[in-house]
Amino acid sequence: MAEGKKKKGIVLGASLAIVAIALMAVVGMPYFVNGSPCDGMIKVRKGSSIETVKDSMEKCVDVEFAGKVATLLKLTGADLSKRQGAFQVKEGDSPFKVMRLLRSGAESTIKFTFNYVRTKDEFATRFAAKFMCDKDTLLAALNDSAMCDKFDRTPDNITGMLSPDTYEFFWDVTPEQLLKSFDTYDKKFWNDERLAKAKALGLTPHELEVIASITEEETVKSDERGKVARLYINRVQQGMPLQADPTVKFAIGDFSIKRLTLAMTQIDSPYNTYRIKGLPPGPIRLPEKKTIDAALNSAKHDYVYMCAKEDFSGYHNFAVDYGTHMANARRYQAELNKRGIK
Fold first, then answer.
1. Residue among 104, 96, 114, 111 nearest 44 (CA)
2. What is the C-alpha to C-alpha distance for residues 160 and 281, in angstroms, rounded to an integer?
3. Is 218:246 a contact under the CB 8 Å cutoff?
4. Is 301 helix (H, G, I), strand (E, B) or coil?
């Protein structure tokens, strides 16, 4: 009789254990199976609590998923106060996987793509919109002579190495780390072959960056950039003033100007190439590497004058002598008058 009761007790205990395991599986399964409904990037600052991280997850994923991850973090006794960075959540990731990601501290990189940037202010604004570093802190670094000197740059020409492209950085990258990365990319670009081509032209890499920046402002036609760049190289080599309209617009701070006046060309600025000889102290926009290559590989010609074509096609008429140039300029100015452009 006692033996039978004992067996029944064992069976009952086993049954209860099975039921308990089943219940735990039912309750716990969503933490291991139910995936994130979308991609998201959790951004964590040092000193953050689990609740702070939960708020971040709610914004980039959703409330229910964030709640599950937060529950697991609490159950495992996670301390996120020393964590900092961005953590990538992919659609379908389970709460358990994301919990482990946050506990591990394995932060993700963020892609940063930029182009058509003219000023440091614009670059800093775009960067700060995606990364932890604020705009003013980044601008202060870009304008700091001691910081720029670490990369053999000045506050005027530091933008020459901020080449438009797609990069990946950690969310909490510091301004110095950021500039160090750009300096690495820049040194890789200026290999022995390109340095030799620059030397053959009698120009430094920094000077070619300036020429590339002016070229990009002068023409939107990629197939004309080499020709335009070579024209400015010719002027530099011959000791002629560049007299590049975009440099005056940069000096004024207004690229929307359609037609320069005589007064505008007299503005006192080291960027006004109507008044200074040679190149301005730095680029007037962040130059693309392909434009620098267009300058380095440009076909030799004798043109030293250019004027926008009167058909407004975006291309230019080029000239070797001033008389031909003035004839080209009169046709363009007549068309400007005809269209009422002042």
1. 104
2. 11
3. yes
4. coil
Within 13 Å, how many C-alpha atoms sit on residue 39's CB side? Answer: 3
Q: Please tell me the predicted confidence (pLDDT) of residue 44.
A: 92
pLDDT in the model for residue 23:
36
The per-residue pLDDT for range 293-321, each reduced to its tens digit, is 999 999 999 999 999 999 989 999 999 99
Residue with tokens 């000077």: 207
pLDDT digits (tens, 9 = 90+) for 67-101: 888 988 888 888 999 889 999 999 999 888 888 89
Q: What angle do CA 293, 289, 239 make, to 5 degrees?
A: 55
Reading the block at residue 325, the tokens are: 């140039």
Q: Which residue has the tokens 């975006």?
A: 314
Taking a C-beta distance cutoff of 8 angstroms, is the pair 251, 327 a contact? no
d(CA 137, CA 14): 64
CA distance 319 to 296: 21
Q: Would you call 109 helix, strand, or coil by DSSP?
A: strand
Q: Which residues have a Cβ under 8 Å from the Cβ of 252 and sit 6 or more positions away?
A: 264, 267
- Burial readout 87-122 (b: 16 or more C-beta within 10 A, e: otherwise): bbbeeebbbbbbbebbbeeebbebebebeebbbbee
99 or 204, higher pLDDT: 204
Q: How confident is the model at residue 292 (pLDDT cuts 50, 70, 90)?
A: very high
Backbone angles phi, psi at 114, to 5 degrees: -145, 150
112 bridge partner residues: 167
3-state secondary structure of 225: helix
Q: Which distant-in-sequence residues (6+ apart) come within 8 Å of 138 by Cβ?
A: 124, 127, 128, 175, 178
pLDDT one-digit tens code per residue, 7-37: 544 544 444 344 334 334 444 566 777 788 9
